[in-house]
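Late entry, written up from scratch paper. The run itself happened at the end of the previous shift, but nothing got recorded in the book at the time, so transcribing now.
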Amino acid sequence: MLAYITRRLLYAIPILIGVNLITFALFFIVNTPDNIARMQLGVKNVTPEAIQKWKANHGYDKPLLYNENKNGSEALTETIFYTKSVRLFVFDFGVSDEGRDISHDISQRMWPSLAIAIPSLIVGLLVNISLSMLLAFFRGSYIDVTGVITGVVLISISALFYIIGGQYIMSKLWHLVPISGYTEGVAGFKFLILPVAIAVIGGVGSGTRWYRTIFLEEINKDYVRTARAKGLSELRVLFRHILKNAMIPILTGVVVIIPLLFMGSLLTESFFGIPGLGSYTIDAIHAQDFAIVRAMVFLGSVLYIIGLILTDISYTLVDPRIRLS
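Output as recorded:
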């Protein structure tokens, strides 16, 4: 097991380096520090002197990759690549273009994102798997056909419709929950009910159809027919055999959601006024604060790689034969 985990960690290193290099190229070669300064200063204040002053104040006046004016290691460390990209590997995100500590902002804003994402993930999985198993159990019946058609309809509806419709019905008409806002502690529970419910409902269509397909593929395999031939009931076959053997593709689907646990939902947090990492990223894009955007891109890639590694490890728990591959 240790050797398997070590291999997966070693595989992740070049991926993370590649993401970092691509991000650096996009932010500092395609979009040069001069362009960043012009966007921050605005049209009226763009002068060569103002650009140089802004770059010096924000650490963008250094050479990109190699500083010819420095000797020894400083020739590499006194560069934009080292200060703005290499230091990300030790999670030193620096300060935003407005002067705020990005690491402090992330540590504060990750909790509202987790407060929405974790319940949405757990409840969504339980609902999607339960409904898909129900459709698989009644496969070919009117229940199955109705469920499939309903799933297609739900997939076809935009996420904005669920958000705006939920706010209008649950908050404006029925006054059951606040329309937006957030408060820490137990008092904040009422602000999370509607976002979590909308996240679950919005994912029911695609989730149910995905898991239903997985279960139907397992139902047609030889071990299922053997279990039925031994006299096991359909429910016992479904829960004891099919569900267990369908865990690998289920875990693969979960890994896509793991980065969102920390990164937050851009739409949901923005519309509900929740101070999470999703709204933090949106605000940074609107303010053209590339230091924050760059940090969030790197953090998202790290979380996604961690999710892949955790998924690989969970595979070995479901099927120990994978450790030998």
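The radius of gyration is 25 Å.
(Scratch paper discarded after transcription.)
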